[in-house]
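Suppose you are handed only these lines of text.
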Amino acid sequence: MSIISEDISKAIHLLTAEDIVAIPTETVYGLAGNIYSEKAIKAIFETKKRPFFNPLIVHIPSIDQLSSIVDYIPEKAQLLADAFWPGPITLVLKKKAIIPDLITGGKDTVAVRVPNHPTTLELLNKLDFPLAAPSANPFSSISPTTAKHVENYFKDSIKMVLDGGSCISGIESTIIGFENDTPIIYRLGSTAIEDIEAVVGKIEIKNSIAQPNAPINIKADVTPNAPGMLERHYAPKTKTVLTDNILKSLNTYDGKRIGLITFKSKVENKNIEVQIALSDSGSLAESASNLYDVLHQLDTMNLDIIIAEVFPDYGLGKSINDRLTRATKK
Ligand code: TXA
Ligand code: MG
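From them, the structure of the protein bound to threonylcarbamoyladenylate can be written out as follows.
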């Protein structure tokens, strides 16, 4: 029997009983549990095979709850929350003492967002606790953008995927941290950098590796600011390359079974087994929305190689390039 269901009451029942449930958001599906339940949070890490140093995002139903999760809200954090929530921006802020170390990987900050999906907003409004939810995929594989993707990953090792259709934005939220009250992008994502700059001014992108400031026994020597910035992430099993010269790459892999991902154009070439343009009309938003589903599809076709075209280096194109680059790291 399928674990996919639209029954919100069932999800409430399971989550209240400290179980975990995969939930839809506008970005990707999340694997959710009560932030105050050690049992549920441990189950999330175990199910994903995710290292404990990699902290989780807390999902709240409205901006009003932010002050119950974090201790201090810099002015520009407030501006961003007002401008983009509900929506695909995650803010990393000083945590309140009540937020468990297990959620934050021992850090004194917590990542938080209000997701923009009607089903999950209804769910969050009916629960009396926030939900911690990392993307609902095994560690370092492609994030799921449909209920079916989640089911394919976890089968019946979880009890339920709450079905909310295909994720509209299609790549993860943009993560913004604060250093001396100055916003810094820790992970590019579904909110374009230009839209963020229109609210808070010029912003730096920083995916540097920071020393851990963690008081708990964390195994890693170094903790990245946001481990979504770990080099190899969001990766298909099939070898994947990124190119700004499609014809040259097609020739390099002559004789191989090639899957090609382009922005909008179709290419005539005998070497191509399958090709998919992410947006015939040339929309970056549509491309982002389709990206992971296309990677999932191509990854099941037993191809020798997936060749992806570099996207324009602005707007969501920057975020798509970030994910494609990580998908190609070996
Ligand atoms: O769109 C999204 O953000 C999705 C949906 C489900 O909300 N969630 C998601 O979660 O992408 P996850 O766990 O796959 O990625 C969250 C990222 C990780 O790279 C994690 O390291 C970072 O957020 N993060 C969480 N708490 C942090 C903190 N206190 N400081 C820095 N980075 C943090
Ligand atoms: Mg993830």
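What can we learn from it? The longest strand covers residues 89-94. The chain has ten helices and 17 strands.
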